[in-house]
Amino acid sequence: MNTVGATLHEATARLRSASPTARLDAELLLAHVLGISRTRLVASLPDTLDAADAARFAQLAERRIAGEPVAYLVGEREFYGLMFAVDARVLVPRPETELLVELALRAAARYADGQRLLVADIGTGSGAIAVAVAHHLPEAYVYATDVSADALVVASHNVERHGLEARIELLLGDQMTPLPEPVDLLLTNPPYTVVSEVEHTVRQYEPHLALDGGGEDGFALIGELIRAAPRHVRGTMLVEIGAWQGAHAVREAQTVFPAAEVVLHRDLAGHDRILEIDVT
Ligand code: SAM
Ligand code: GLN
User: Fold this and answer.
1) What is the C-alpha to C-alpha distance for residues 142 and 130, in angstroms, rounded to an integer?
2) What pTM does this model have?
């Protein structure tokens, strides 16, 4: 029988072929199998691993080596310091998208007047943006939409998990059409890639509806969202974009909102990532 420590060590070596975060992946998978936190796992390194747990862990490690995201294997992912249920019905929330939340909280501070702040999250997926914003802004009321009914099932679990049923309304439908009224903050991380060009494990495991922005460079849906926005936003619009789409996004925004302030924000890797349009 192997110890927890030896099992982790061996699995890490094998995961290196598939993942730049091999040790972390191995720890997350083994902690999941044992039903304990990663911190507890470290305290259990000298313990022996029973055969059934070792077998379950080996299976998950094989799936990870084949490219399946750790988040799907363990059924959850941290985003903006909060835990979210995720599975193959939704995109795994990305760290870049935390910048969108940060900018949304900053914009909200400009509108803080003690009144209800209306927010929309278009293409909410797991609900990551909607939940993070509602969690941090007690005055916010959030319309979270998706064209995927399957994604909204996952989002509803996360809204409940964070006790936000009273302030997040999930709406099924295309783009902004389900919004019942204009909002102060219009947030969206829409699909913006060309599916044939994304990393092959992403293409293989994550929903294409969450990735395929349409058009030659993946910009089609973003363009439609910006052009529809004047009827739906009265404050700030924040849109996550592909690193290659900055100039196109700014041009579109300036055409549709000639009087607005338009700013492009870079992510931690230095890539153009969030388009901000301040209408007021
Ligand atoms: N907001 C989540 C996040 O940041 O992790 C998910 C973002 S994922 C890139 C895009 C989401 O938009 C998917 O959940 C997808 O189902 C949804 N979507 C795709 N086309 C849409 C459309 N025309 N109208 C509304 N939502 C759409
Ligand atoms: N970041 C995703 C990727 O790595 C794309 C997300 C999106 O299309 N909004 O492909």
Assistant:
1) 7
2) 0.96
